[in-house]
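To fix ideas at the outset, we first show an illustrative case, written as a sequence plus integers encoding its fold:
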Amino acid sequence: MTVNRVHIFAGGRLNPGMLREVRSDDWVIGADRGALFLVEHGITPHLAVGDFDSVNEEELDRIRRHSKELVICDPIDKDLTDTELAFDLAVQRNPAEIVLTGVIGTRLDHSLANIHMLLRAAEQGITCSIWDEHNYITLCGSVCQVEDRGYTYVSLLPLTPVVTGITLKGFMYPLDDATLRIGQSLAVSNQLAAPVGTVYVNEGWLLIIQSRD
């Protein structure tokens, strides 16, 4: 089964306002406690997946009753995080786009692993983004449009060791054929100067992080 967009809700920072991003034709996955969040707010996941070690038996039963499909993994024998399990199952649907919500939280290791999934998606030709109330994160390897989504800042950080040929148009602080290396903060806390900015990259992968406090 091929779908246009898969929306994954994981167990990181979540609030009901995030549900406004769910479209009627989305194929929705709840990863572990993200599945509980969905059913508690009246959303029926097409798939709930994880080891569900963060919910109790009563909550798991509620997830089971209100999800179209449930996949439970052994918490000890599994090699992947719940979010990556959900991501892999999403990729099997051959979507044009994957949206990751609730994948940024207090665990920095999990947050970074989830950000790295943007590269996995890009390498398979899938548009992927991470979204929550404080951040909207995408990945650029050629030409990308950056729409004003109401965030204060736009920061550019290399995901590969070196990113070359970076040119910015429609930004307060433009760049022209610049190079960024991991560890440099030159392109942190920029701002849009137009409703839509454009990022050009010659070589490498560049994280585009729209954020607010």
